[in-house]
Amino acid sequence: MMGLWIRMRFILGVLAVCSVVSLAAPLHAQPQVAPVNPDASAVNEQTLLQQVPRIEGRIDIPNETASVLIQPAGRVWRYFHEVILHWTGVIVILGMIALLGLAYLIMGRIRISAGRSGAKVPRFNSFERFSHWLTAATFVVLGLTGLNITFGKLLLLPIIGPEAFTSFSEAAKYVHNFVSFAFVVGLVLIVVMWMKDNIPRKVDIVWLKEGGGFIRSKHPTAGRFNAGEKLVFWFALGAGAAVSVSGYLLLFPFYVTNIAGMQIAQVVHSIIAVLFIAIIIAHIYIGTLGMEGAFEAMSTGSVDLNWAKEHHELWLEDEIAKGRVPRMPASASPAE
Amino acid sequence: MARMKFLCDAERCIDCNACVTACKNENEVPWGINRRRVVTINDGKPGERSVSMACMHCTDAPCASVCPVHCFYTTADAVVLHSKDLCIGCGYCFYACPFGAPQYPKVGNFGSRGKMDKCTYCTGGPEADGTAAEYDKYGANRLAAGKLPICAEMCSTKSLLAGDGDIIAEIYKDRVKTRGYTSGAWGWTTAYHEGIAV
């Protein structure tokens, strides 16, 4: 009995020591240097770099983040930032503008084919419009100040000179940092308000198959939002979340990530932002120049009855059924 | 003109941190910033080596090319310097630097960065050599006075070498031949695209 007890105590003791060691090990293993050949006279930079992407060690000063000795990935990130990002930005953004220009030249403005009825249907209330314009205004500010960080030195610096460009860019940096919070507020409001109207439905497939409103002979119907708007909504939600999260990782250095993490965050932030800008340029086009009667939905809050009938018939029927729109003669005839 | 480089002979570095202290003192480096640091690899294990690291004044420096405001410049001695008047504290050089050289005084809210600070190879900045304005922003300009960086000059084991790249490479090669082994010129391949073949 006594022997068993001693053996038990021994086993428990061993377990306790093991657990302490295993708990302590990750702390001591912080440099994360893979075991090197013990026969080698010393650790060697090239050998280490083949095993790990960056060399870390122990440092005496309190700044733990300085314990990374060498991280050659910085040069890779430089290549991304100076070559890949520049070309992606130019191709995606200018490509989208060219595409829209082409669409305008070929199709022109999408008119209300039945003409204006003169009757108005309320589409967005003032709070919805406030949320939209909060997001929109902050997006434009963030987009321009962000593009300045990547393209300013190529486009603006040669024109206004280094001192003026620095003053502008420093202000732009602070604006970008602080305005981001307002953008997130706007984005959250939009998502909460419009999520339920943006859930994909069967009509969306038909809408997409018929080419949206872009093929003149067809007038695919839609609910409050058509499939195109829904795509913009879900893209804005995903891209907005991605740029926000990656942006805050960069805004709070070393709170969550190390430098390697910040390089990835910057890649995500910039690539998503470039795509976001291109999509929003298309969104702006279709909401203003590209389609008659669309902009007033977000400016005055109501749309023409015939516009609603042509683009969002299911929604209009709903609104009428709910009594939000005075029942009109079935053929709300053109005003002319 | 010389092509100035740093070379830390890891066989000799004893992790005394005198280079770190001397640099802070000579350049009145801002609070919380260490332009030079000593990192110990494989601490307490066989083959442990300590390496003193600062800005390596890279060939084709990544910090300079990613800078959104072009505040970097390279001197005739191939020292990579920057203008604190032009720096906007965006942090890009610090993402790109392979050696963790750029650092920022913390100013204002959350991660707001002040003007970047880094090793100047004791060469001051864009202001006129040896002026008070230059000293205020960048610290000492020893090179203009014909002296090498203080960190290397006062290294007690002569582990840290500064000077023309070819000359310090020769000194290093001689050492390696004499003692018969080496752990390599740390950071050279990354910084200068070439190691030291012995």
Descriptive overview:
- The complex is a heterodimer of chains A (336) and B (198).
- With 336 residues, chain A is mainly alpha-helical.
- In chain A, 65% of the residues lie in helices and 4% in strands.
- Chain A contains twelve helices and five strands.
- In chain A, the strands form two sheets. A two-stranded antiparallel sheet of chain A has the order 1-3. In chain A, strands 4-5 form a two-stranded antiparallel sheet.
- The termini of chain A are far apart.
- The model of chain A is unreliable at 20-30 and 331-336 (pLDDT under 50).
- Chain B has a two-stranded antiparallel sheet with strand order 1-6. In chain B, strands 2-3 form a two-stranded antiparallel sheet. In chain B, strands 4-5 form a two-stranded antiparallel ribbon.
- Chain B has helices at 18-27, 62-66, 92-96, 132-138, 150-153, 165-179, 188-192, and strands at residues 4-8, 37-41, 49-53, 72-74, 80-82, 160-164.
- Chain B is an alpha+beta fold.
- Chain B has one domain: 2-Layer Sandwich (Alpha-Beta Plaits), CATH 3.30.70.
- At the A-B interface, helix 2, strand 1, strand 2, strand 3 and helix 3 of A face strand 2, strand 3, helix 2 and helix 3 of B.
Summarize this, please?
Chain A has 336 residues and is mainly alpha-helical.
Number of structural domains of chain A: 2
Q: Tell me the CATH architecture of the largest domain in chain A.
A: Up-down Bundle
The overall pLDDT of chain A, averaged over residues, is 86
* CATH class division of the largest domain in chain A: Mainly Alpha
What's the alpha carbon Rg of chain A, rounded to whole Å? 29 Å
Q: How confident is the prediction overall: mean pLDDT of chain B? A: 92
What structural class do you assign from the helix and strand content of chain B?
alpha+beta
According to CATH, what is the class of chain B? Alpha Beta
Cα Rg of chain B: 17 Å
